[in-house]
Amino acid sequence: MQSFTEENYLKIIYHLSDKTATVQTNAIAEQIQTKPASVTDMLKKLSEKGLVDYVKYQGASLTAKGRDAAIKVVRKHRLWEVFLVDKLNFKWDEVHEVAEQLEHIKSAALVERLDSFLGFPKIDPHGDPIPDKNGKFEDATFTKLIELSVNDFGTITGVSEHSSPYLKHLEKIGLTLGKQIKVVAITEFDGSLEIIYNDTTVNVSREVAKHILITKLHE
Amino acid sequence: MQSFTEENYLKIIYHLSDKTATVQTNAIAEQIQTKPASVTDMLKKLSEKGLVDYVKYQGASLTAKGRDAAIKVVRKHRLWEVFLVDKLNFKWDEVHEVAEQLEHIKSAALVERLDSFLGFPKIDPHGDPIPDKNGKFEDATFTKLIELSVNDFGTITGVSEHSSPYLKHLEKIGLTLGKQIKVVAITEFDGSLEIIYNDTTVNVSREVAKHILITKLHE
DNA sequence: ATTAATTTTTAGATTTGTCTAAATTAAAAG
DNA sequence: CTTTTAATTTAGACAAATCTAAAAATTAAT
Ligand SMILES: [Mn+2]
Ligand SMILES: [Mn+2]
Ligand SMILES: [Mn+2]
Ligand SMILES: [Mn+2]
Asked: What fold, for B75-139?
């Protein structure tokens, strides 16, 4: 059984592993809001527990056991987010902080019954896939909005940034999950994108477009 | 903002205060599963924070601020128990441990929305009153089953022991919340009570009867 | 009022997770 | 291939919460 703190490290390492095979000390420190020296200490501990593979100065990666544990935390985080939005009427920008706490509640029965109560949802309020009981899930192949070209179109199926200010901004300009969008122009000056959905046109900065995930539609 | 641990101390002191005005170090230690020396340390800390009144060797009591904090924890504990039973189909003997964790989740919005989602329940699955948003609740005047005499009758409205083995036992012999019962005899030999409800007669040991709370009916 | 038993507190150590400052190692630049 | 820079690790300290063993205070018993 892992501590609250250990679970946070495993989860962060898991998320950072999406991009690179081996995760650096400084990257973990930044995500977890701590100092590199503290990360080194924890990596040694997690390594001794058989949860991460760690070689001095070379970074860390999750073992099978560590990945299982991390996925369980992610599953709980996303199920609780669905609960908060679907059942308690929270907005999608209000749930992340509370889910950060709820994800550490220890009770296998609770997770399974919550999952059932919610109707076995496949994605959370930000479009992220929810691992099932066995940790399995389909990691959809997203394209970032910023990578689209003029005349490309598709559906908004996720966001890779969960902060409240960011999500509130998307809400305000109408770019929420499920919206069909099309890129009509890319501004020469600042690289921002001109997007059309329904009959509305909005301008999206590169910084914002970076975190919007699109499922491209063809033809 | 209190730590997880501080909240547990406040809650225990609150519960122990029901019986006596000032709470002893050893009593807290026993409830919280720790050593008296640790309790002394914590009492000093809570005293400095203005949450308890504490005089060396004299025991402790909650300040108004401490009681407010304790009641907030109790409110959360009981609301979560209602959620687990009413929405997730847990049995009344399965919820206490999980609620011990959930009661420490920090989010005012979550508590209020959960309360609303549950329909503003007044009592939890064990018959305990749920404090409202402002910490107010009616503490009903219960009579312990063990204090009844032959021919006394009433309704089971609560239990003062939340452990799974105890609650499972009550379930098995049919003594659940809301049942109308009558004492038909008290056994000379061991003081156990002969109880009748509907058309069933059951024998209840003194140890079991001690924790069953009755609302007496007259005439 | 002494003595004995119980309760409570202190003193000093331990564990978990963190930090700062200094020392190493690895990577980048020249 | 040195030198410089950046990343990482060690060493030593610290805060929170706990423990054991010993000392002190309170309460109960003679
Ligand atoms: Mn989240
Ligand atoms: Mn999410
Ligand atoms: Mn309970
Ligand atoms: Mn209860």
From this structure: Arc Repressor Mutant, subunit A (1.10.10)
Q: Please tell me which residue of chain B has the smallest CA distance to A101.
A: B105
* CA–CA dist B150, B139 (Å, integer): 26
- Alpha-carbon distances, residue A40 vs A21, A193, B207 (angstroms): 18, 41, 54
Listed residue (A156, A153, A157) closest to A139, CA to CA? A157
Find and list the nucleotides of strand D having atoms within 7 Å of a protein beta carbon: 7-12, 16-22, 25-26
Q: How far, in Å, from the CA of B128 to the mean position of ligand 4? A: 6
Distance from CA of A4 to the nearest CA of B (A): 12
Region(s) of chain B under CATH 1.10.10.10: 4-62, 75-139
* CATH 2.30.30.90 domain range(s) in chain B: 143-216
Q: Please state which of the four CATH numbers 1.10.10.10, 3.20.20.80, 1.10.260.40, 2.60.120.970 is assigned to the domain occupying A4-62.
A: 1.10.10.10
Q: In sequence order, which residues have a C-beta less than 8 Å from that of residue B104 and are 6 or more positions away?
A: B4, B7, B73, B76
Look at domain B143-216 and name its CATH class. mainly beta
- Is the CB of B105 less than 8 angstroms away from the CB of A101? yes
Q: How many CA atoms lie within 13 A of B213 on its CB side?
A: 15
A88 touches chain B (CB under 8 A): yes
Tell me the nt nearest to B60, Cα to C1'.
C8
Please give the C-alpha separations between residue A168 and each of A84, A101, B157, in angstroms, as whole numbers: 17, 22, 47
Nearest chain B residue (CA) to A118: B88
pTM here is 0.94
How would you write the pLDDT of chain A (219 residues) with one tens digit per residue?
A: 899 999 999 999 999 997 778 999 999 999 999 999 999 999 999 999 999 999 999 999 999 999 999 999 999 999 999 999 999 999 999 999 999 999 999 999 999 999 999 999 999 999 999 999 999 998 878 899 999 999 999 999 999 999 999 999 999 999 999 999 999 999 999 999 999 999 999 999 999 999 999 999 876
B11 — alpha (psi -120 to 50), left (phi > 0) or beta? alpha
- From B119's Cα to the closest Cα of chain A, the distance in A is 12
Written as one letter, the residue type at A84 is L
Residues of A in contact with B94 (CB under 8 A): 109
